[in-house]
Structures are given as C-alpha cells and as structure tokens.
Amino acid sequence: MNKIRVMTVFGTRPEGIKMAPIIKVMENTSEIENIICITAQHRRMLDQVLNLFQIEPDYDLNIFKPGQSLTEITVRALEGLEEVIIKVKPHVLLVQGDTSTVFAGALAAFYQKVKIGHVEAGLRSGNLYSPYPEEANRKLTGILADYHFAPTKTNRDNLLKEGYPGDRIFITGNTVIDALQYAIKKDYVFNLPLLNQLDYNNKKIILLTSHRRENIGKPMENIFSAINEIALKYEDVEIVFPIHLNPKVREIANRIFDGNPRVHLIEPLDYEPFTNLMAKSYLVVTDSGGLQEEAPSLGKPVLVVRRETERPEGIEAGTAKLVGTDFENIFNEMDILIRDKREYEKMANAVNPYGDGKASERIVDIILRYGLK
Questions:
Q1: Which residue of the set 47, 244, 335, 343 is catalytic?
Q2: Name one GO molecular function term (predicted).
Q3: Which of 76, 91, 118, 134 is flagged as catalytic?
Q4: How many CB atoms lie within 10 A of CB 225?
Q5: Has this prediction a pTM greater than 0.90?
Q6: Is 307 a catalytic residue?
Q7: Exposure of 207 by Cβ count < 10 A (0-12 exposed, 13-18 middle, 19+ buried)?
C-alpha cells in the first residue's frame, strides 16, 4: 500500500503548538509518511515548542534574522520551501493559520502543483489590515488551498460565502484544544519563583498579553493604563504580564506600570509554563488570537483588547468580550468581572465553542480519505 506523503510546514510558536497534535497523530498512523519542515520564522520561541512536544524536523530552513521585514520572511521562506518540496514531492502540504510562513508555504506548494491543506481555515475579521498581515495571509492561503479544515461552523460559513466548495470544507474543532491536553499539569511547578509565590487561591491573578502591531502607540497606552488603574484600585488583584520582546511594547509597559507593586512584568514564557499560568489565573486580558480559544477551554473569561476579532464564536458563546482599546471601556469591563461574581461565573461557565480535543484525529482521517485522490 502506498503511503500518503504529508509535509507539515510551520515557522512560529503558535503554528507549532497547533500543528504538534496533528504531527503526533500522524506519527502513529502507518498509512502516512510524516515529513516536517520548519522555516523558523521565529527561532527561539519555536524551539521551545519542538522540545516540549519532542518534534524533530526533517528540514530546518532557519530563516530568522533580527529586524526582518515581512518581505524578507516571505521571500526566504518561499525559496527554501520550493527546494524542499521539489526534493520531497509530498502528496499533501499542511499549513496552519495565517503567518507569512503559511502563505509562503501554500504558494510554494501551489507552484509545484501539490495539494494544500489549510488548518484553521475560514477565520475572518473583515478588515484586511487587522490583524496585519494575518488577515491577508489567511485569505490568500484560502484561495490556494484544496482542503479547508475549519475549526467552527462560523468559519465554514465564511468560506461558503466566499465561494469555496462545501465538499472541501471540514469542521474539525481547533487543534489548540488538543495541544492543551499535553501541557496542563495539576501540580505544575514553575521555574520562575515569582509564579510559585503568587496566591492563586486568595488573589485574583490577571494574565495580560499584548503585542499586536495595530495596538502599538495610543491603543496600547490605553490598555496598559486601564489595567494599571485596576491594579491600584483592588488590593486583591495582581497582574502578570509576560512582556513581548518588541522594544516598543516594552517601552510603553515599563513607562506605564513603573512603580506599581501589583503588576509583575516578566520575560516571555515557554508554552508549557504559560498555559499552566493561564490555568491558574482568574481572568485573561489579551490582543492575541490563540488565547481567545485556549482560555475558554480552561474556564477563564477573556477580555479581547482589539477593535475586531476573527474569532466571533467566543463572543457569541459568552466566553469572551470584545472590549476595544479605549481606557474607560477596558477599565469598566475588568471592574465588572472583578466585583460581580454572577457576571464572572456567566463567562467562566459558558460552553467553549472551539472543540473537544479531537480535531487532530479528524484532520488526519480526512487526509487518509482524500490524500491520494
């Protein structure tokens, strides 16, 4: 029996996290030849994921350069992936999400007439420049893809509205839920002493992440100022902010949070400690995409500090609120969840719309069904 040669391509930590469970299923599927190629668009953060999930890439393009532009990333990824695809001759190439690696991977496969599977297909914010460049990347990838693995019905509906054939769109759930099952541990001990010393039982520990390009400047100043005021108002609230490496983000954070003893600025965390910190937290405030899916699966309300989101399912289900970037609105929404137990429980107990932890198995089953056709 001929094996289906599947080449997975990813380059950043979020892609690696969401591809890892699929790779793990394929490793135990005898009908599939599993080939892994990383671009290392993000080097250090991606290596953390490879180590955690014990993934050994067959090809490592190692394209990362300090200060790299979007054009440089795309061109280097496209050239490197073309060479690997010509050598490997995969039947199916899998990409996940919406990074420059994803678009370059899909384009390289298209140029070699290789079938493309797009994991996490159909997300749309409706604004081509928010998030930037992700909204464009995922739409361009969708045009090239043969198989659209949509996490939710909303994602499938988005693709149908854009004219994609329904028999090539598959609702699978989101593989990030699968990945959490590998990472969360009941009695997890952090390497950073501060995180072990926090009183998760008697204090409200709020996890903050913020790094989006479109928020840098006045929007981010508003976000951080509102959170700072909340931490000053409530003695039982502490903020933990694994601060992004972007120097612009760091400058704003250090300026606004300076001198507040209840705000803890720490270095970026690896995926495993980060998810375990999220599991112990009271509330998540973020402009990230993936956290809007992960936190609800852990029963943690999410306040999304963006003007729009490509993940409306969480908003509709009540697990997340889109609160924008205005100081007053962010402060008020946080204030409600801190003092109003009923409102908090309503969000914490809402049903997670992003899946049951079996998305990876569904995706591999679909590849087995269609991969050689």
A1: 244
A2: UDP-N-acetylglucosamine 2-epimerase activity
A3: 134
A4: 16
A5: no
A6: no
A7: buried
Which pLDDT score is estimated for 342? Answer: 97
Closest by alpha carbon to 102, among 124, 150, 70? 70
What CA–CA distances, in Å, run from 286 to 125, 209, 212, 231, 371?
Answer: 16, 5, 10, 16, 37
* Residue-wise pLDDT tens digits, 323-349: 999 999 999 999 999 999 999 999 999
Q: How far apart are CA 174 and CA 148, in angstroms?
A: 13
C-alpha angle with apex 176: 172 to 178, nearest 5 degrees?
Answer: 75
Q: Pick the catalytic residue: 13, 42, 76, 98?
A: 98
Residue recorded with tokens 């926090």? 198
Which pair of tokens denotes residue 370?
A: 């269609």
Which 8-state DSSP code applies to residue 302?
Answer: E
Q: Are strands 263-266 and 147-150 parallel, antiparallel or unpaired?
A: unpaired
- Is 134 marked active-site? yes
Q: Is 7 helix (H, G, I), strand (E, B) or coil?
A: strand
Residues across the chain:
373
244 catalytic residue (yes or no): yes
Among 60, 146, 168, 213, the active-site one is 213
| d(C-alpha 97, C-alpha 14), whole Å | 9
What domains can you pick out in the chain, each with its CATH number?
Answer: 4-173+357-371 (3.40.50.2000), 193-349 (3.40.50.2000)
Q: What single DSSP character describes residue 181? A: H
Task: Report the DSSP beta bridge partners of residue 11.
Answer: none
What is the tens place of the pLDDT at every residue in 63-121?
999 989 999 999 999 999 999 999 999 999 999 999 999 999 999 999 999 999 999 99
DSSP states of 308-328 as a string?
Answer: --S-HHHHHHTSEEE--S-HH
Task: Assess whether 213 carries a catalytic annotation.
Answer: yes
Distance from the Cα of residue 176 to its chain's centroid = 8
